[in-house]
Specification:
Blueprint: H1 2-24, H2 31-53, H3 60-94, H4 105-130, E1 133-141, E2 150-156, H5 167-178, E3 184-187, H6 197-201, H7 205-208, E4 217-219, H8 223-227, H9 230-239, E5 243-244, E6 248-252, E7 256-260, H10 273-278, E8 286-289, H11 297-301, E9 306-309, H12 320-327, E10 333-337, E11 340-344, E12 362-370
Parallel strand pairs: 1-12, 2-3, 3-4, 4-5, 7-8, 8-9, 9-11
Antiparallel strand pairs: 2-12, 6-7, 10-11
Length: 374
């Protein structure tokens, strides 16, 4: 993995050097202004890197000073790069005409317009992130579920609790979930973001105690539980009222089976789904929590009725959503294979830039009806 991170770091540095060079050319030539600009720019460039390197040692207050502006800059940097490259290309093509002369004003207009547009885009994206939508989905399963004719199940994924998504943010999420009056709540992994230090210091487990669902709250692991340190992640999750399913299954009120798989990235040797299904009774409705939506055929082959996944964030910000849609068979939304139904959520939280552009933060509500054949 080290060569990969070196390549990413060099690319990140090159992009920042390009943006720095363009911006520096148009700021006033006063020494104080140039020095101040260089200091501020270096802080934005290095804040995210320092925050990640010190995520297990820095106090949450110090991390917030670094992580929030650092992650905001990641998003702004992407859009400044795209804007500058596009406008450079257009201007370069226009200048091919012998009647068009080079304009010294172009650079000033380009840089000023770029920062104004990107600032507006980031504000819009932050609003989209802090105002999640509720996506409702009607699900019909042709099996009997004991005395239940229908259930309202709320699905969450990718909370990424930590510095950007703190206890106050979690409190608002819990309130929105409770407002749906769910019978059951399922969480498809990545509850933790980069480390559990801020979660433990803010006692975030207390907010999960406020989640109300008669049939309980269930979750599987995601890759970030492993990236944050699986032991510390498990220690935090044990403090919550969440029932964690790790390559295991639970029979809920003698009516529904729910399987939670271990995360594939965190544990490539996780139990095969066939073995987990063998421990259940497929006469009952069979639900599956699997963080990453890969190998979707496996659920169909093993008689799963509904699989709920996350992980993709639907790319979180455009144009990354286009890349994610090429990476996954279903990167977002509903699909069906035979009798198996799937839903991949874009997630309630996010990683990195605290913005949603071209995608949504969402709470998924499944209105499940059980209609046994005959």
């Amino acid at each position: 993995m080290k060569p990969f991170f070196i390549i990413v770091f060099l690319l990140y540095t090159a992009i920042n050097a390009y943006i720095f060079h363009k911006t520096r050319q148009v700021i006033p030539k006063w020494k104080t202004v140039k020095i101040s600009f260089a200091v501020i720019y270096f802080f934005l460039y290095s804040a995210f890197i320092i925050a990640m390197l010190g995520r297990n040692t820095f106090l949450p207050a110090v991390q917030k000073i670094l992580y929030f502006p650092g992650t905001c800059w990641l998003g702004a940097m992407l859009y400044l790069l795209l804007f500058f490259l596009l406008t450079d290309l257009i201007y370069g093509l226009v200048r091919l005409s012998p009647t068009v002369k080079q304009s010294k004003k172009f650079l000033k207009i380009q840089v000023s317009a770029g920062y104004i547009l990107v600032a507006g885009l980031m504000i819009y994206g932050y609003y989209r992130f802090t105002h999640p939508k509720v996506s409702e989905r009607e699900i019909v399963i042709h099996k009997s579920a004991g005395n239940y004719k229908e259930l309202k199940i709320v699905g969450l994924s990718d909370l990424h609790l930590g510095i950007n998504i703190d206890r106050n943010c979690l409190k608002r999420i819990v309130q929105r979930v409770n407002a749906q009056n769910p019978d059951m709540i399922i969480i498809a992994g990545d509850i933790v973001d980069n480390n559990t230090l801020p979660l433990m210091r803010e006692k975030m487990w207390e907010e999960f105690e406020q989640m109300h669902a008669p049939l309980g709250v269930y979750a599987c692991l995601g890759n970030h539980e492993y990236l944050s340190g699986i032991e510390s992640s498990m220690n935090f999750l044990r403090k919550t009222d969440i029932r964690l399913l790790v390559d295991s299954a639970a029979l809920i009120d003698s009516s529904i089976w729910l399987i939670g798989r271990d995360d594939l990235q965190g544990n490539p040797k996780r139990e095969p789904l066939s073995g987990l299904v063998a421990a259940t009774d497929t006469v009952y409705p069979l639900f599956l929590l699997d963080h990453e939506p890969v190998n979707l055929n496996e659920a169909e082959q093993n008689g799963i009725d509904l699989q709920f996944s996350g992980h993709t964030h639907h790319g979180q910000i455009w144009p990354l959503s286009l890349l994610v849609e090429r990476m996954y068979e279903t990167a977002y939304g509903y699909c069906r294979k035979g009798n198996t139904q799937y839903y991949v959520t874009s997630g309630i939280g996010l990683w990195g830039p605290p913005v949603r552009i071209g995608t949504d933060s969402e709470i998924t509500v499944f209105n499940v009806r059980f209609l046994p054949d005959g």
